[in-house]
Amino acid sequence: MPPRSGLALTGNRIYAAFVAAVGRMDKSLDPRDTLRRLEKHTFTWSDSVYLIHVVNSVFWLVIMRVPGFPLKLLIPILHIGLLLVPFTSQFFLPALPITTYLMTFYSSQFIPNNRRPSISVSVLPTLESVLFGANISDLLTRFTHPILDVIAWIPYGVGHFTVPFVVAIFLWLFRPKQVLHLWGRAFGWMNFVGVVTQILFPCSAPWYEVIFGLTPAEYSMKGSPGGLLRIDNLFHGHGYTVAFSNSPVVFGAFPSLHSACATMEALFLAHFFPQIGNYAWCYAALLYWATMYLTHHYLIDVVGGSCLATAFFYLYLPDELKGPLATASPSGALANGAAALASARSKYEIYDIEEPRLDGDGASYELSSDAASDEEDTGIAYRSPGPAGPGYGTANGAARPLVGPAAKQARRSHKHTASIASLIRADDRVEDGWSPIGNGSFVFPPTPTRA
Q1: With 213 labelled, which of 22, 147, 277, 406 sits at a CA distance of 20 to 30 A?
Q2: Cα–Cα distance measured from residue 69 to residue 90, given in angstroms and rounded to the nearest whole number
Q3: Selected residue with higher pLDDT from 82 and 397
Q4: Closest by CA position to 17, among listed 169, 184, 180
Q5: In terms of Cα–Cα distance, which of 89, 255, 96 is closest to 264?
Q6: What phi, psi does 347 have (nearest 5°)?
Q7: Using the 8-state DSSP alphabet, how is residue 157 labeled?
């Protein structure tokens, strides 16, 4: 297939999936629809997770200093409004764990320094040397090159912020909505737990060791872009320098949320899109290297982040999405679900017919004449079972096929033909004076021959 044809086919498929996804959306803008659904909802223990969202939001709003009061009240008001409107709620409700993580990440900078735990400077490099025999991240930074800088920058400085949206869009287009909801829960709670770990166990990154050695660190210190400083110099900008210098979490080396996000993305793509699984893991491996090459994480951080992502993926992955439904399309998922439900029923329940009764010996079936009449509407050309002769058959004695009005009349007059049960139990029917094979009343017409 020519490249242009392949691209056109892919584009048409994405467009068709987009149209179908838009058609599945709830387009209501009336908050009363959401309130009515809330009234009909049966609350369970699993719904208690929303209390975590409420308590977490209240806590961070209280200590948040920028924006100040009362402007910061616009944050929960806007969020509640988005949750009430059905059109926006279908996206923001599954994304609640992600918004909880983002609020935790941003507001953690306002924790008073005297309430924070001490910063660990030597734990991570020591663990790396003990577990892996050397400081791997230090070895990877011994040789740098502009080409390597760009290769590392693409996944670390660009892909980390864009690939999660790409994965979410693909799940929305090509997989059932349950998969998109799973992505929101697993990705959001993974990042939330990772940020909380960084707040409770602050550790310095390799860039700190390069600049300050193993001297004690303080919260008043600004962050550093590390190897991304070379990207700023390459493009004559200051974007990464400004971003990392004002990062809310400066000493958040462990676990690496860059590697955690890449691992989660690779797990989702490999599981729900197996055909691109190898490419997803290649991207994740490239990002693992980039985190260390750019002096932002130790190898132990990368391993910790990957383990965190794997744990949350399999913790939230339901059993029904571990089988064929994982690769089913949004419409195919419904069909497969119906098939799975139907497989649990007998064939008689599926087709709503009466189950045949067993004989006394439990070995044979007694079929009624109604079973044979099910074929009365088929389009088969009937042959008259009457004797050959004028008006009945052809010159060579073969029965004449009935078509048109004659065929219609024949179907009416021969509705109850010999059933399979009649053929099997012919000996019993002979005693009643009729048998299709035992009394000579049924004669097979001779095979037609050519003149």
Answers
A1: 147
A2: 30
A3: 82
A4: 169
A5: 255
A6: -65, -25
A7: I
135, 125 Cβ separation under 8 angstroms: yes
The overall average pLDDT reported for the chain is 80
Q: Over the stretch 396-428, which tens digit does the pLDDT of each residue have? A: 444 444 445 554 454 444 444 444 444 445 455
pTM here is 0.72
Angle, helices 3-24/160-174, rounded to nearest 10 degrees: 70
CA distances from 335 to 165, 181, 342, 402 (A): 28, 20, 10, 41
Q: Whole-angstrom Cα distance, residue 322 to residue 272?
A: 9
Structure tokens at 350: 């599926």
3-state secondary structure of 174: helix
Tokens at 65, concatenated:
């200093």
> H or E element: which one contains 312?
helix 299-316
Query: Residue 346: exposed, middle, or buried by beta-carbon count in 10 A (0-12, 13-18, 19+)?
Result: exposed
Residues 212-267 have pLDDT tens digits of 988 999 999 999 999 999 999 999 999 999 999 999 999 999 999 999 999 999 99
Tell me the per-residue pLDDT of 164-222, one tens digit each, with 9 for 90 and over.
999 999 999 999 989 999 999 999 999 999 999 999 999 999 999 999 988 999 999 99
CA 355 – CA 364 distance, rounded (Å): 13
Q: Give the chain's end-to-end CA distance (angstroms, integer).
A: 53
Are 399 and 384 contacting, i.e. CB atoms less than 8 angstroms apart?
A: yes
Tokens of 427: 């000996």
Q: Kindly tell me the burial class for residue 167, based on how many C-beta atoms sit within 10 Å of its own C-beta (0-12, 13-18, 19 or more).
A: buried
d(CA 43, CA 151): 49
Handedness of CA 87, 91, 97, 98 (dihedral sign): negative
Q: Can you spell out the DSSP letters for 347-413?
A: HHHHTT-PPPPB-TTSS-B---HHHHGGGTTS-PPPB--SPSSTTTB-TTSPBPBP-HHHHHHHHHH
Compute the half-sphere exposure of residue 174: CA atoms within 13 Å on the CB side of its CA.
17
Which has the higher per-residue pLDDT, 121 or 440?
Answer: 121
Contact between 94 and 185 under an 8 Å Cβ cutoff? The reply is yes
Phi first, then psi: give them for residue 78, nearest 5 degrees: -65, -40
